[in-house]
Design goal:
The complex is a heterodimer. Chain A is mainly alpha-helical. Chain A has 13 helices and no strands. In chain A, helix 4 packs antiparallel against helix 9 and helix 9 packs antiparallel against helix 12. Chain A is globular. The two termini of chain A are about 30 Å apart. In chain A, about 45% of the residues are buried. The longest helix of chain B is centred in the first third of the chain and has 32 residues. In chain B, helix 6 packs across helix 10 and helix 6 packs antiparallel against helix 12. In chain B, strands 1-2 form a two-stranded antiparallel ribbon. Chains A and B meet through helix 1, helix 4, helix 5, helix 6 and helix 7 of A and helix 3, helix 4, helix 6, helix 7 and helix 8 of B.
Chain lengths: ~280, ~300
């Protein structure tokens, strides 16, 4: 509607200035990360605040990949994040389906409990979880992280999946069930293919969340060979706080999977965040 | 699975009626049970245990000194200067983070609600910070504030805001602005996305009518946009405030609560007490206090919303 509206030239100029501001604000920190990562060590200090390095190198990346444990951290994080994403999406799809299609006793209570889990400080349960995990002998295991992250992410993912199921007409399943499918068959053959984009988006959201979790991973993992990427990077930073180029190269590498998933889930962002934040 | 047991019914015939009882009482729980079991075991049970910890002495470094102590932890908390400082810092951190996130997010949402060339790409790029892992945003901003490799101190000094290019993360008077900046950067996309969804739900005819009646852009904004967004703003700000008050990652990575506890907020205080001191009893006490404060806040806000927004 505003395309036709005649605008004051100052207003248009202001708008483009604002656009430029947001773009710079969003991208500059990431650009700087990349810039330091590709600046040769010798130039980092002498060219402190230059916007473009006068020389470019990729040795920081090869050092990080081949001479440190980062590949192992990366692998651990990948296992944890993928495991969490798949388990969460599966369970959340079930729960979201139940919320979307059934009216049953206790529904309101369960929804309320799920909302409460989004509110209370998660750090509140960091001590009990540490003790439980320790008593089970699961400290320093990726399994414990996957279980904990899965539980943390189920409520949000459930509301997200519910909003996707709500978007699929109920008549489709009714028709399938009329034709002799059981509800589970109708779910598998009719509803499931239609929710694939929703399942994908949920996978992406949960993967991103699990990939960036730091505090519980710090608490539950102390052995080097079970460290996830955030824990590994933080340990690296506190140990070798002068290897700027390498640290930032590692940072850029940590960014890659999130960015890939981001490109993928970008389309669902509005639906996802609003359903998670406001529903209920 | 339950349907297997009713499989011997003629296809299509009376299954619907026969399994009505099962369908409406048991079946939903088959789909729900993994989620319920996990949430119960990993979140609700530890939550109750956590509350019980606050009445016990549980210090992993002094394993023989444990047991029920009643309200001793709470008495200690009441006299703990660090706790009150952290409470003050939590308010400061939350207030400024949310204010800037909201204002910048609203601005971005309104920009994205207009037409311009390359909008899709622009939207993808400005939302990118949301996808950056928090530990990485924290490290990136910590590096940007470092005068050795980051440009920010030099720019701030050139603008006259700093007397010389030093690291504000090491200055007790300014340190909190470091994590707040990182938080704003990270949180603007969230507000923009939420508000954009709300903006797009405002009927376009309203704007057209306003234009026909010769309303100025400012009038349109205050008389149409804001009132329509108000309920969404209220609920988003409320949820986000709770989330930010609980959000410890950025501060923990950037300053660890220092220097001299000037950036210690309640959630980082909980984490450092549990993680570094292994004093689980006291950490849980702080956590319960934080939970109560947030509860009171939520109740007040819900009450205000009921009073102010008549929907």
């Amino acid at each position: 509607m505003s395309a036709i509206r005649r605008r004051h030239p100052a207003l248009t100029a202001g708008k483009y200035a604002a656009l430029a501001f947001y773009l710079l604000f969003a991208l500059f920190p990431l650009y700087w990360l990349l810039k330091i990562a590709i600046t040769p060590d010798a130039l980092i200090f002498s060219e402190g605040t230059r916007l473009f390095p006068s020389d470019v190198t990729f040795t920081n990346f090869s050092t990080v990949i081949f001479q440190t444990d980062f590949l192992a951290y990366f692998g651990n994080s990948l296992i944890v994040s993928l495991g969490t994403a798949f388990l969460t999406t599966m369970f959340a799809a079930g729960a979201g389906y139940a919320f979307s299609r059934f009216v049953f006793k206790g529904k309101r209570i369960i929804i309320a409990v799920m909302l409460i889990t989004q509110m209370f400080p998660l750090l509140m349960i960091i001590a009990p979880i540490y003790k439980i995990v320790a008593d089970l002998g699961l400290l320093n295991s990726l399994t414990s992280l996957i279980i904990v992250y899965t539980a943390f992410n189920i409520p949000f993912a459930t509301f997200l999946m519910q909003s996707f199921f709500d978007g699929i007409p109920k008549d489709l399943e009714d028709a399938a069930m009329m034709d002799g499918c059981t509800r589970f068959q109708a779910l598998r053959k009719v509803v499931f293919p239609l929710t694939l984009p929703g399942l994908g988006a949920t996978l992406g959201f949960v993967f991103t969340a699990a990939w960036s979790e730091l505090l519980f991973a710090l608490m539950l993992i102390s052995k080097n060979d079970a460290m996830t990427f955030p824990v590994g990077l933080l340990t690296f930073v506190s140990k070798f706080s002068v290897d700027w180029g390498q640290m930032m190269a590692a940072g850029v590498l940590a960014l890659v999977p999130s960015c890939l998933f981001f490109i993928f889930i970008q389309r669902y962002l509005v639906q996802g965040l609003t359903s998670g934040a406001v529903k209920g | 699975m339950i349907d297997r047991t009713t499989e011997n019914v003629m296809p299509g015939a009376t299954r619907a009626r026969r399994s009505l009882y099962l369908q409406y009482l048991v079946e939903p729980f088959l789909y729900l049970s993994p989620a319920i079991i996990l949430i119960g075991a990993v979140m609700m049970v530890p939550l109750i245990i956590g509350v019980s910890y606050s009445f016990q002495a549980i210090d992993l470094l002094r394993p023989f000194d444990s047991g029920w102590v009643g309200l001793e932890n709470y008495a200690e908390l009441w006299g703990d200067r660090k706790f009150w400082l952290a409470l003050e810092n939590t308010a400061f951190w939350t207030f400024w983070s949310i204010t800037f996130q909201f204002l910048l997010g609203l601005g971005l949402a309104m920009l994205l609600n207009t037409q311009f060339y390359g909008k899709k790409l622009f939207q993808a790029l400005v939302f990118l910070p949301w996808a950056v892992p928090t530990f990485l945003s924290a490290l990136t901003w910590a590096w940007l504030f470092n005068p050795v490799i980051g440009p920010l101190p030099h720019w701030l000094a050139a603008l006259g805001l700093l007397s010389e290019p030093y690291n504000i993360l090491g200055d007790p008077a300014l340190a909190m602005w470091g994590p707040i900046t990182a938080n704003i950067w990270f949180g603007v996309p969230f507000f923009a996305i939420t508000l954009l969804a709300a903006l797009q739900s405002i009927p376009g005819e309203l704007f057209e009518a306003a234009e026909v009646d010769g309303a100025t852009p400012w009038q349109t904004f205050t008389k149409i946009t804001l009132p329509f967004l108000a309920p969404m703003i209220a609920i988003t700000v409320m949820l986000r405030t709770i989330w930010i008050a609980n959000f410890a990652d950025l501060i923990f990575v950037m300053t660890g609560g220092g220097p001299a506890n000037s950036t210690q907020i309640l959630s980082t205080y909980i984490f450092t007490t549990a993680f570094r001191k292994l004093d689980f009893g006291y950490a849980s006490t702080i956590a319960v206090a934080l939970l109560l404060i947030l509860l009171i806040y939520a109740v007040i806000l819900l009450w205000l919303r009921k009073k102010l927004v008549k929907i």
